[in-house]
Task: structure prediction
Amino acid sequence: MSCEEKGRLAMEYDTATSKFSEAVRELHRRMGTSKEEYNRLERASNEARVKSEQARLAFEQHIAAHRC
Result:
């Protein structure tokens, strides 16, 4: 039996981690840019990291609560 909510949360987590990975790649690629641009990219990377962590937590909490 498949849990639709678990699948949805897994997809959200996958999307969030992909966005975080891309933000980090962009930050690395743009090293040596202006301080303002670097700070903007760093903020974007940190925001993506937080969203990824939130998605992971939601996924893990669902699994723990529903045992699926």
